[in-house]
Structures are given as C-alpha cells and as structure tokens.
Amino acid sequence: MKTIAGVGLSQNTADSHRAGIEAARAAKGQLKGPFPLAVVFMTEQYDEQNAIDGIRSVTGDTPLVGCTAPSLICNGKIYPDGLGVAIIQSDTLKVRVGSSDNLSQDAKEAGRHLGNLAATLSVPKGHPQNQVLLVFADASMTKGVVTDALYEAFREFGSFFRFFGGGSADNLHFKKSVQIMNDQVHRDAITGALIVSDSPQGISLRHGWEPTGRNLVVTKAEGKTVKELDGQPALELYMDYLEEDIKGFDFSKFYGFASGHPLGIPMATGEYVVRDPLSASIEDNSITFVSEVPENTIVRIMKGSKESILLASTEAANEAKEALEGKPPALILVADCVSRLLFLGDDAQTEISNIESRLGGDVPMIGFFSFGEIGIEKGGPPALYNKTCGVYVLPE
Questions:
Q1: Is residue 272 within 8 Å of residue 304, measured between CB atoms?
Q2: Measured CA angle at 290 (ends 288, 291), to 5 deg
Q3: Which is nearest to 376 in space by CA: 209, 210, 202?
C-alpha cells in the first residue's frame, strides 16, 4: 500500500468540539487505514482540549501531534482563523510520538526525554532522510531554550535523523501557546513524532535574506536579549548602522521597522540562521529577538526584498521535491515564519501558491505560520530559525 493523506479544515470557531469533528472527517474522507499519524494546527479562537476531543472521536487512537498558530495553511490557502487536520494512511511508515514538559525549566532534559523516541523504534542506521522527527515546541513563552532541547535530542538520535517543525504561538499576543500530543494539551513543552519511511522524506529550509556590512560580535547577551554588539550598546549600534536617529525614532513601530533588518548568524555551511528583532529597550539599549542569540556569536545585519523572500520559498519546495528521489509526494507540511506573513502581506498567498505549484496542485497540504522554524540544513545539528520558510514532503 502506498502512503496517502487527506487534509480537512473547519472554521467553526463557535463550537471547538464540532470543529474538530468536521476537520477530522474531511481529512479522513475515503481513507481506509491503517493511520499511523494525524497532525493538527489551530488558531487561538479554539478551546484546544475540546477540539482534540472532537478530532479523536473521529480518528480514535491514531497518534496525534500539532500545535497552536497565528494562522494556518490548508490545501494551498492561508486562514487567519481555523482548525486544520491531516491524516496519513500507510502500512509502511513507522511512527512514535512523545512529549516533554517544563521546557523552560530544564530544556536539556526535555530534549533528552524526546530523544528516547529513537530507542522505542529500534531504528537501524540508514539514509538520514528516511528518519525524520517532526517537532513542535513552545518558542514564544520560554526564555530562548529551544535550541538547547534540540541539541540534546540530536545527541540522543544521532546524525542518522533529520528534524523538521516549528514553534507554537498565538497571534503575537504571547499569552497562549499550546503543543499537542494524542489526547493531551501541553504548555511549556516540546512534542514530536518520529517518522521512519522506506524512502527519503523531503526537507528544505530557505529564507532569502542576505548579509550586509561587517561582522559584529555579540559581546553581551542573556537568552533572547542582546545588550552589547562589539562592546557597544546594542540598540545604539544597530540604529546607527541603519542610519536611524535613535532619539527621534518611534519605538512603538520598532518591530515593523526591524523586521526588514534581522540579524544573521553564519553557519559552517555558508548559510545564515536568521534572528528576528522583536522589541527594543531605550532604557538599557538592548534588543530582544524571537529566539536566542548567544554571547560571543558573530552576526551580520541582513537585508531582503519581497522578491528574494518569495524566491526562497520556491527554492525550498524544489529542494524538498528533489530529496524524494523521484517518488511522488503524498503530503506537504509547511512551517512558515509568522514574520514572513507580516512582511509579505498579501504576497504571502503567493508564497504558499509557489510551494503548491512546485509540488503538485493536487497534493494535500497542511501547515502553520510558526514562531521559529526547526530543521537541519545540509547536515549538522538541528537549529531554530527565524524568518524562514520550511517545507517537508512525505513520499507516497
């Protein structure tokens, strides 16, 4: 039996339980089973537990993972409010799901606990793309520790695995971020689904941002907050570099301005992990980012355009498709940074349409606008990216 999938959507925000039933029934459609995995994304308008109960009334004990998101993606379209479910039918996939709470209190232990999934499947060493961990982590409420959890999970899994996923969030209110596993709602947690297939699964992450100017060194930082760059107050140096008058600047508009000027951390592969500025403090001249920026890290200020960002999503789709080595895609899963949605505006739909067209317009698609994107790009340990478009493709 080949692997196939279905995707269902409900925008019934008045009845969360009913919405879960509607989306799950639409996803299940004519699928017969077995069902090794279901994936769910929902926006903040829903009561998560009631929605999950509705989904499980349709899917039974099918393993379920997912999270909350600012907006979701279903079958090539963007929905600012809705609940989406994908159900996978296959008799060849091996799947295990797991979760670990208290992420902000002990990230390393949370990562090690998640890494135990590898032992439960007794997976032999093989092609890394055949063994993928879907990861959904609380990246909005924690203090910049997701990377620590990912590194520890990677140490447990080893280099014969790939990672893909993203950070859960609400619509930038920073009040509610939920991770889902089976019939449970988790907060301050990291959840995952280990998927082992007979053929390579496609993964690619691309952002479209390019470095400008000289290297800068993060000389003082705490978690997500950078206090000094090159020994100077971070905000002063950042604004001076961009030729902005710090005294006359309206800092209520800082995020909109800074979203076009993120920092990039160079990697050994020549790529950059992007860090998205979130807010600034004129009191101590610090800048707080969406994800952690460690001390002694070299960074560059980045630039980008709508054209370069849209091209990056097309490249991600093409690379994910190439990784399938000729196999047709069964399901597309997208983790697209919410800052790209804000930066692109109406063109965000073009980005999703580009991905859909490269991978086949009739392939089921589900995804979410994430608060940080998780993946391994060209080998090495997994990283938490910002302002990036991630594409995962499950083969038939």
A1: no
A2: 100
A3: 202
d(CA 147, CA 145): 5
Gap between the Cα atoms of 137 and 393, Å rounded: 20
Per-residue model confidence as pLDDT tens digits over 255-291: 889 989 999 999 877 889 999 998 999 999 999 998 8
CA 329 to each of CA 104, 202, 205, 308, 391: distance values in angstroms, whole numbers, following the listed order: 36, 9, 17, 26, 12
User: 142 pLDDT exceeds 60?
Assistant: no
Total-model pTM: 0.93
Looking at the predicted structure, is the pLDDT value of residue 123 above 90? no
Helices then strands, each counted (H, E), the chain = 10, 26
For range 359-364, the mean pLDDT: 90
Exposed/middle/buried for residue 255 (C-beta within 10 Å: 0-12, 13-18, 19+)? middle
Paired sense of beta strands 190-196 and 131-138, if any: antiparallel
Please report where in the chains the tokens 């996939």 appear, as a residue.
93
Nearest to 114 by CA among 131, 144, 137: 137
pLDDT of residue 379: 66
Give 285's strand partners.
none
Nearest to 2 by CA among 246, 265, 199: 199
Count Cβ atoms below 10 Å from residue 158 Cβ, excluding itself.
Answer: 13
**DSSP states of 68-123:** E-SSEEETTEEESS-EEEEEEE-SS-EEEEEEE--TTT-HHHHHHHHHTHHHHHTP
Sign of CA dihedral 322, 386, 142, 230: positive
